[in-house]
Amino acid sequence: MEWIKWLGEHFIGMFNAGGETFMGLFTGIVPTLVVLLTFTYAVMKFIGEERVSRAIQFAAKYTLLRYTLMPILSVLMLTNPMAYTFGRFLPEKQKPAFYDSAVSFVHPVTGLFPYANAGELFVYLGIANGIKELGLPIADLAVRYFLVGIVIIFIRGVVTELITKYLSKKIEA
């Protein structure tokens, strides 16, 4: 009979802990996310959607910008998963590489811009809590994630574009 009591207490305890976590997020990070997202959309409206579109079309012409600036802007402005729609500015042969770059950037961006990919926030916060417990600054972690992420998305975009070209030639032959 004791095991039933223990099971009942711990079963409901799991939901209590989940509720506490939810309230912590709701009173902590959620308002910040809402304000960041509102700010981003306000900046887009202020700049103008046509200007943003022209800037993306310009960036699409150059490999360096196509696999750095485009994924960064797409993730920051449209968030995950809408960020991948920026691929519409590219020819079919470059879409896989853009997608690879954009999908690779949704985690590194989380430390500085948590609204961009809320699903990755829990991963980042877990790592950040470990860094915090070590007495190290979390801001350094966020900046390093962001900068390394830019390097990685560029490499992945270029490599994926080369692989796509190679495979396309194989299929045509």
Automatic annotation (TrEMBL):
Alphabetized NCBIfam families for the sequence: EII-GUT
Protein name in the entry: PTS glucitol/sorbitol transporter subunit IIC
PANTHER family: PTS SYSTEM GLUCITOL/SORBITOL-SPECIFIC EIIC COMPONENT, PTS SYSTEM GLUCITOL_SORBITOL-SPECIFIC EIIC COMPONENT
Domain of life: Bacteria
Keywords assigned by UniProt, alphabetized: Membrane, Transmembrane, Transmembrane helix
InterPro entries in the record: PTS_IID_sorb (IPR004699)
Keyword Signal: no
TM segment ranges: 22-43, 64-84, 142-163
UniProt KW Lipid metabolism keyword: no
